[in-house]
Structures are given as structure tokens and as C-alpha cells.
Amino acid sequence: MSAQGEEVSELLATRRRKLEALREAGVEPFPHAYPGVTPVAEAKAPHEGLEPGEETDARVRVAGRLAARRGQGKAAFLDLVDRTGRIQLHATVDALGRESLDRLVSLDLGDLIGAGGTIFKTRRGELSVRIDDWTLLAKSLRPPPEKHHGLTDVETRFRRRDLDLIANEESRELFVARARIISTIRRFLDEEGFIEVETPVLQPIYGGALARPFTTHYNALDRTMYLRIATELYLKRLIVGGLERVYELGKDFRNEGLSPKHNPEFTMLEWYEAYADWEVVADRAERLVDAAARAVGNEGFKPPWKRETLAGAIRSRTGIDVLAHRSLEALQGAMREHGLDVPGEDTWAQLVDHLLSHYVEPHLIEPTILHDYPVELSPFAKRHREIEGLTERFEAYAGGMEIANAFSELNDPDDQRARFEDQRRHADAGDEEAQPYDEDYIRALEQGMPPTGGIGIGIDRLVMLLTGRQTIREVVLFPALK
Questions:
Q1: What topology does CATH give the domain 3-144?
Q2: Could you tell me where the DSSP H helices lie in 150-303?
Q3: Which CATH architecture group holds 170-305+366-475?
Q4: 390: exposed, middle or buried (C-beta count within 10 Å: 0-12, 13-18, 19+)?
Q5: Is the model's pLDDT at 451 over the cut of 50?
Q6: Mapping DSSP to helix (H, G, I), strand (E, B) and coil, where does residue 478 land?
Q7: How confident is the model at residue 99 (pLDDT cuts 50, 70, 90)?
Q8: Which of 79, 153, 284, 452 is buried most deeply by CB count within 10 Å?
Q9: Phi/psi of residue 155, each to 5°?
Q10: CB neighbourhood size of 155 (10 A)
């Protein structure tokens, strides 16, 4: 064993010995509860205006993790940290007695304790609690991350999120901000007349996006099932059923690679509204994202956002008019003429998507809506009301990445059937991301779906943008890792 390993082993053994000593002394190291706790920030807030040295009769009961300890003999100062902040505890032999104080100062950093006492401000101006009782709430049998440098190794932070949250206040604040963004989104949609619903995660036919699924087996039914790649086709069945405005905020799963913008398990918001088209959805999306941004102090998403057509965005950045080269061979030739590398894509749609992702998307930093997508890229979007070969689809971008995808939804069952057939041909040609044929969905459309607008917004990417993070792994509590 290395010297470092021996040191860690001895630290663990020392904490185990302390655990046994506590039990021998009749102290329960893992009690059941500690009711009546006030969050640290809430305990401190009413007393920020105290003068240095000023005492109060205000009693509080706080709990958290022991983060620092100073002093010995007749008095000690200890730092206690909870989700909302840090507060100093002042413990004296007069208030606690010799045995209780000695036991308190012998605790290890990382131990969880509760303490009660009165608020005061030290002569140095720090709000503190003068405690007269305390309770061990959980003995920590492993030392916390090194206190001076925190937990800085990125791989360890993501694999051991518990240690990351213990050591890094910024990480705790990030996930509190994520929760605030999500609650703001729900409140926004609830107030605009939408109802939240839940649709199956396990599906007999995956659909609603172009992606490879995760596959599993349902033993009771003896059939192959898929983790959903999107909620779209089930939510639109609810529009058919008359619910008119619905949304779902939950997990989707796509069997794709890992990257700074991709995690195979991710959180998606989708909403659908009857009697709306893509422009209504775009307006609502701008207002929703702006509300979520302002909830975490970000003022950079105020409507209206910049708008471009997809073909115009590609043309202005590559010189190629994709709509003038509507076959794979023609578009490949145009790319060669403009000195661009030609990847081995199997279809015209894939090649257009390549141009978008490589030459346009990285440059869309300010919030931007790209609209008027070719029908080949949009199997669920309604055909453009004026321009042949296009659909009423838009994608929203910011920070150099896509954050939303939306349509005037296709509600013509015959057109949808033809698109499914086209996707089936792509699948037969080897496209693993092609949309499978869903006859049940066609039957639902044949019942009659009103004009409908719908959108999917990637919550993880949205949190990245609104909090200034660079990778999706930073904003997912437990990301997939190699």
C-alpha cells in the first residue's frame, strides 16, 4: 500500500474508533430525526443589520455539516453549512458543560450536527449562534474533500456528485438554479392554460424524433420495448382527445454518443396547443425562455429574437443554396465547387443537416430562430402554406447550439402516412435514426386533430445557457460517463 493509501486507511480507522466510542458513551450517532430546523439563510436574514457585538433573544435551531472548527479550552467556534449557506456556532463550557463541549470539539469535519441557541453578531461583525445545546445527527466515516482547494478534479466531481456538492458551494447553487428554472417553466405554462400530463416511457414503437432508441424486453408480454426518444406522438393523441393544451416535462433517452451537448438520458419539455401554428409557438417560447432566464438573473433572452430561414442561414455562411440542389449528388457537387469537405452521408437531408450543424449552428450565439425547413428533414411538420417543398418548422439556437425544435404540426393523416412510408425507405436503406411506421398514430390522426403547434425544448441545454456552463455534464446531477 502506498503512503497516501496508508494515511487514508488510518483516517478511516480513526473515524471508526470514534464511532464506537460514541456508542459506548451512550450517544446515538445516527438518530431518527431533528425537527424544527430553520435553514441557515432564513435564520440569518432578519438579523443582518445587527451591530458588531450586539446580542438578541432570537432562538434558532440549525442543522448541517461541520465545515470548520477553531478554538479549544473554554470556548470554540464551529462553521456549520447547509444548502442555503454557512453560519458560525459559538460554543462555551458555561453554556454546554465540560463533557458536552469536549465531545463537540472532538467531532470530525464532515459530521452532521444540529444546534440550538440565540443569534448574535461577534465583535468582528459575523452573525453567529451562541449555542446551548447540540446533537450529533450523522457520524461521517469518511473525510470530506480537502478544505483549502475543494474538489477540483472534473472527473471525480461528476462521478461523485455527493462530494462535489459537499465541497463546492457553486455546484449547490447551480442545481438550485436548475430547480428554479424548471419551476418557473411549469408555472409559466400552468398560467397560460396548459395542463401537465405523463405519457409512457416504455413504448412499443418509438417515435417523435430521428434517433436510435434504447431497447429492452418486457418479460410479462414477451415483446421488445423501447425507452422513449420523445413524447410527441402520445401528446398529440391527447390533442386529438380534446385536451387542447398539454405539456410534459420528463426524461427522454437516445442511444447516441457522449459530447459536451449530448447525454443519452436527458430532460425534455414538450408542449402542444390546439388552434396554434409555429409563429404562436415561437412567440410563447421566447417569452417562456425569457421568464426562465430572469428567474436566475439572466437578462440576455428578451424577445423578440433574431430570425432567419434555414436555407438563408446556410447560404450566407457557405455560399450554397441547398434548395437549388435538391438531390444528394447535386448538393455534394455544390459543396465540392465551394471547397467544402463532403462527408459520406446517405441522404440529401443528412447532408443538409451536416451543413447546418457544421457551418451555421456554432455561429448562432445570440438567441435565433431558424425557420422554413425542407420537408425531408421534418417528418411531423405541416407543409408550408406558401412554399413548395418546405415545412412550417423552426429550431431555436443560442450559445452555438440548438435548444428547441417546433412545428405547425402535421394533422393530415394521408400526408403523415406518406411521410412514414418515406422514413421506412430510409430505414431499409440503412438509416438507423429513421422514424418507424406507427399505424396507431395514423388512426389517431384519422379521428381528426385540430390545427396544432408544438415544441420540444432541451432543459439541460437551456440550463447550460442560462447559467453559463460549457458542458451538459455540469448541469446533470449524475451524467453518463465512460
A1: OB fold (Dihydrolipoamide Acetyltransferase, E2P) (2.40.50)
A2: 154-159, 161-167, 169-191, 232-240, 278-295
A3: 2-Layer Sandwich (3.30)
A4: buried
A5: yes
A6: coil
A7: very high
A8: 452
A9: -60, -45
A10: 10
